[in-house]
Amino acid sequence: ILQQLFDTFSETDVYAQLAQTYFQRSNYEKALEFARTAIARNPDNVMAYMTAGLTAEAMGDRMAAVGYLTEASEIAARTDDAELQAIARIQLVQIMQGPPMPLDPYTPTP
Asked: Over 60: is that where the pLDDT of 84 sits?
């Protein structure tokens, strides 16, 4: 089945889709692994950055989440994808409106 996916879709899209699937199943380690693989193979893959951002947030790493979602928004703007840019910005705002992020990344949040 995996080979059929690679035959039908680009390698990067397959990795990005696997990342989304693992995210939806709450397997965040695998989701982040596949999202990072998609990003490494195509640094302009907005969906991979968005999935990495949401996964990082789910894993409690808000600083990484902000970085991934900011990058997703910037790539979407550069590629004139207004819809994905809006989605990335909404997700970014939702994360930023959560509890305050610690100034020191090693300080646990209450």
From this structure: yes
